[in-house]
Amino acid sequence: MTSGTFVTSYYDCSELDPVHRKEGIFPVMSASALRATLDILASGVTTRSAAT
Questions:
Q1: Residue 16 class from Cβ within 10 Å (0-12 exposed, 13-18 middle, 19+ buried)?
Q2: How many other C-beta atoms lie within 10 A of the C-beta of residue 15?
Q3: What distance in Å separates the CA atoms of residue 24 and residue 4, rounded to the nearest whole number?
Q4: Prediction pTM value
Q5: Is residue 26 within 8 Å of residue 16, measured between CB atoms?
């Protein structure tokens, strides 16, 4: 990638439901949780862009 933003997301699987662990369904993240994470990222990027 020559330009853009790399994003790394970490997921704590220590309390992963055994059903999901057995089925190999990972990560299990609701759409609202993903949206909230992306909103936080967007806010940080917007704030940094405005400061420069």
A1: middle
A2: 5
A3: 31
A4: 0.42
A5: yes
